[in-house]
From TrEMBL:
Source organism: Cyprinus carpio carpio
GO (cellular component) term, any one: extracellular region
Listed Pfam families: FGF
Keyword rRNA-binding: no
Basic and acidic residues bias: start-end ranges: 15-25
Keywords: Secreted
UniProt subcellular location: Secreted
PANTHER family hit by this protein: FIBROBLAST GROWTH FACTOR
InterPro entries linked to this entry: Fibroblast_GF_fam (IPR002209), IL1/FGF (IPR008996)
Tagged with keyword Secreted: yes
This protein's name: Fibroblast growth factor
């Protein structure tokens, strides 16, 4: 009798064990739909971030170069005059050391190369192929002058484009003994006419006049010609 009861208990335990094995497990981990959704959102955020960064980089590449700033100065010629630009764009010399017409921006546009721009009118000094000085509303290659220090510590300014074809002698910015602007091919670097002494203004507060544009090289320049022999 005891053996029959024991055998029945063993049979019941075996059946219960087999039923437990065949039953699907309810403790298996299931993938959360929210988790996949979060990953999808994360991918979208990452993509949008990359697109935004790429767009910013593209805008930075398209951004124009900042305006080049010059040094406000007066150019004192060894002939005893300050170089000045009159309201009509003409160039000559003045004895007045406080005239606003004698204020210029010396703007670096290369290695020892400058543009000379009037603070009052906003026009640039330029030299054409005949050696005549004129003033230009836009910066062009004819507005480039090489700045060199001479033996006597005066500064000379020569055209970057033009020089004597046979001798190769440079053409210089200069004033004669009467304070008149000279043709560049008639100015010699050893003469006082070509010698200038820059006198920078430390406390410059500005003068009334047109806004000074940024330096940009233009293939076609709208120039205001002014020639004087």
């Amino acid at each position: 009798m005891a053996a029959a009861i024991a055998s029945g208990l063993i049979r019941q335990k075996r059946q219960a064990r087999e039923q437990h094995i065949d039953r699907p497990s309810t403790n298996r981990r299931r993938k959360s739909p929210n988790k996949n959704k979060g990953l999808c959102n994360g991918n979208l955020v990452d993509i949008f971030s990359k697109v935004r960064i790429f767009g910013l980089r593209k805008r930075r590449l398209r951004r124009q170069d900042p305006q080049l700033k010059g040094i406000v100065t007066r150019l004192y010629c060894r002939q005893g005059y300050y170089l000045q630009m009159n309201p009509d764009g003409s160039l000559d010399g003045t004895k007045d050391d406080s005239s606003n017409s004698s204020l210029f921006n010396l703007i670096p546009v290369g290695l020892r190369v400058v543009a000379i721009q009037s603070v009052k009118t906003g026009l640039y000094i330029a030299m054409n192929g005949e050696g005549h000085l004129y003033t230009s509303e836009l910066f062009t290659p004819e507005c480039k002058f090489k700045e060199s220090v001479f033996e006597n510590y005066y500064v000379i300014y020569s055209s970057m484009l033009y020089r004597q074809q046979e001798s190769g002698r440079a053409w210089f910015l200069g004033l004669n003994k009467d304070g008149q602007a000279m043709k560049g091919n008639r100015v010699k670097k050893t003469k006082p006419a070509a010698h200038f002494l820059p006198k920078p203004l430390e406390d410059f507060t500005g003068v009334s006049g047109p806004a000074i544009p940024a330096v940009t090289i233009s293939a076609v320049a709208h120039a205001v010609p002014w020639n004087r022999s």
